[in-house]
Amino acid sequence: MFTLIKTDKNTRARLGKLETAHGVVNTPCFMPVGTQATVKTLSHQELVDCAAEIMLSNTYHLYLRPGIDVIKQAGGLHKFMSWDRPVLTDSGGFQVFSLAKLMKVKDEGVEFSSHIDGSRHFLTPEAVIELQQVFGSDIMMPLDEPVSYPCSKSKAREALDRTIDWARRSKACHCEEPRRSRGDEAIPKREIASLPLATLGVARNDGSIRQLLFGIVQGSSYLDLRKEAAEKLVDIGFDGYAIGGVSVGEGEGLIYDVTEYTAVLLPETKPRYLMGVGTPQDILEAVSMGVDMFDCVMPTRNGRNGTAFTKTGKLLLRNSKYTRDFTPIDKGCGCFTCRNYTRGYIRHLLNTEELLGLRLVSLHNIYFYVMLMKEIRGAITENRFTEYKKELIRAYKDKERLKGR
Amino acid sequence: MFTLIKTDKNTRARLGKLETAHGVVNTPCFMPVGTQATVKTLSHQELVDCAAEIMLSNTYHLYLRPGIDVIKQAGGLHKFMSWDRPVLTDSGGFQVFSLAKLMKVKDEGVEFSSHIDGSRHFLTPEAVIELQQVFGSDIMMPLDEPVSYPCSKSKAREALDRTIDWARRSKACHCEEPRRSRGDEAIPKREIASLPLATLGVARNDGSIRQLLFGIVQGSSYLDLRKEAAEKLVDIGFDGYAIGGVSVGEGEGLIYDVTEYTAVLLPETKPRYLMGVGTPQDILEAVSMGVDMFDCVMPTRNGRNGTAFTKTGKLLLRNSKYTRDFTPIDKGCGCFTCRNYTRGYIRHLLNTEELLGLRLVSLHNIYFYVMLMKEIRGAITENRFTEYKKELIRAYKDKERLKGR
Known about the structure:
Chain A is of the alpha/beta class.
């Protein structure tokens, strides 16, 4: 499903193409985060207008609300949210371990209370795969056990062993070892896993592309554990590999160390996904280490705080210095916000708590991230990725220096 | 500026055309409310897509935030908010009297504390006209003194006398009797009022159409005061006439009585605007009484509450019965929301407090109101307004009966 088109001469940056049941994703790519089946404040059409080729949603959140039966009845996640391009669903492992209450990990799965209404739930790796099968996710993630930072080696080892075991079970559930039939339907599990998506009424392709399943490399900041995890997962065999458990408070240096070390352990021929990272600088660094896929709440979360990304740094649009600034957020930007509205107007909207302000900045930021990836791909194509990266990082750094004055 | 195209045979409903500096408005019309230079949750483009021909904004709110100097520097209100169609600005009288704190009315003007930061302000009728001149409003409203309901006759009389005096001063300030120069500019007042809008950099017409000024008929529920107000305002002479101080808690019957009584007292050749009204039924009734223009926060406020308008009544989309309803809000509706999303998805968005939900319902409701007016105009054109009105009101009533079962 993944075609490696080109590898950069000076760095490990890669140009690729990932085929999914809902279309092709050009890599390196950024996936806007639609946790609850919506990228916060934006419509699906705005994401299309931003040229987003794929979005991310979250199994834990969707399982709790609206619930699997609702999404099933809607004809899958794509139909439910009116998005006909690829979707990657996170397993919800991170959310179960960070958001849910009264959580108990067992080898069989994880028991927790909903952060919404306190109701008790038990999710196994198999259940998480089955949920994503019903969603019709183009890319599924297996249930894993992330750890916080810092984490003792014995705890990291224990969580890793479970994560690997769960990954094996997830793969088995998806492809080889059906355990139980899917809810109220009489179709045996094996059959469902191998059914072309079109049969489930969620695909627009010719039915020849299955749902993809990625493996998640954990291991905290311990490089030997990361190595072991990568090797074991590659042994099991997945459609792609994610680097999880980074950007959890360990600092920039360690994020880069773990990413660089782990990325090269993963097969050349499969896409590599760095989960939950990051700033434009982080993305440039990780691309140069050979990472292909990214997701982060930063563009939308910062958007709702009134912080806009530009190539020369961030603008805090709530700042009163923008009150009389009637230029766009970024003169060179082609997004709907920059084509139509000024900093002064957006500052007024933010200042008066008008929701349009949150929308306009979120939209600009998503466009910025998607365009950043497009420019990165262009730079790799034209053998000038190193220069592009240097230039962008210098522009950011200059901005920081200006602030320091 | 107003052309009366046709009057209905069976009712007083009128078909008209109001020319303004930023284009023609077909009447009867509905003006979406953009209190703070934005129709809550929506972009200007969405209003255009809804075929809204005019929007309303508010002098009191804009005067406090972002302030007149900001809007002036932006090149006027249209440029500030990226809307190149007509704008009517309410004077802010209603807001000063209902929202501001520590308010003191004098014959000269009204002193008040900002509801935002408590700062003291003094607004005269002349200042309110000057503010709207700088906004570049296509239709300006004079400062008035509305009263609450119920109101003693002596209080209503006192407020009315002041309102009439202020209306006279507003007209004088706009057209005849400049009192002071406009802020930091050396242009004498008289000159500004008669300057073509294009000179102020806010118009897209050939500069031949001035800003319009309407008069506001007050008088509480006292018909003799309403009559006196109408006659005195007509004597002064305005580009259009508003019926103010209705829908302030007096009940449907009295709204209709006052509107019906007042509308016929106003000149045939000028547009009539019923301020702040109302439900689809209210609008149908008022149109049949000869009213041409409407504004109301209902479509957007209800939208943010999750209440959608349809021809057969309102839908409370937060209701759990819509959880598995995968039909659009209204099958016959052509709005972006109904073309793309289902009740079940919108219910999920509202239930999970996702801002897209507020947007989608607000958008549908604005489209509904604008289309209602379009259908009303079509019905008047084709001599079937009475039937159209009856049918719509019956459909609503049937719905209410169904609920009662």
